[in-house]
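haha ok so turns out i had the wrong file open the whole time. this is the CORRECT one, sorry everyone. sequence first:
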Amino acid sequence: MRIASCALAAMLLAGGFHTQASAQPAEPSAADLVAKNLAARGGGAALAALKSVSLEGRLVFPGGFELTYNEVRAGGGVRVDAALQGLALVQAYDGKGTGWRINPFEGRKDAEPMSDDEARSFADTAPIAGVLLSAASDGSAVTYLGREDFDGTNCYKLKVAQKDGDEFVYLIDPDSMLEVKITETRKLRGTVQVSESELGDYEAVGGVMFPMSIETGPQGASQRQRVIIAKASANPAAPASLFASPSK
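then structure:
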């Protein structure tokens, strides 16, 4: 009887372990996480209705050096103006493969073309939806990499591998399902460069969530530049000429 009782107890215990293990939630797929991120951003309808966006605020460099900041995205194009005392650093991508800049802080007042690598890099900032939510339409592959701690939060980790070889690794907050960190790995001028961006203070712009605070710098750097958005507008006027190089 004792042997039988022990055997029965062992079976019940094993059954309990089996029931507990089977009750563990399954890990989500990349598609599940992208869908939840889309919903958290505002949903497909809100994104489709947002044809252009303007973000205004400050660009703060390490040490406290500040410039005014204005970013406009529309139709696959993006333009950033960062100004100080009447001098404006302009960087733009026209949505058709051409990037250009004007940098008066280096004594250049005329528009100069970006290199192909620089233009490709800047073009990734153009989509209103962002790289992650644009992956399905541009042929990029999205992979779920498990979990990673970020400031005490066990975040979901997604990798976007673009067709040109550039990679973006996103950390998604499990509560808000919004991006809190992006690590970019890309090749610029023949050299692999890795940068990190931390995103926060999300607010709705035309029903779509955007980070109002972004800190960016090389991976591992102790000091980073920060963009702080104070005003955002949905569907402002943004003609194609705004993104086109004045030298053409």
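Residues 1-22 have pLDDT under 50 and may be disordered.
again sry for the mixup
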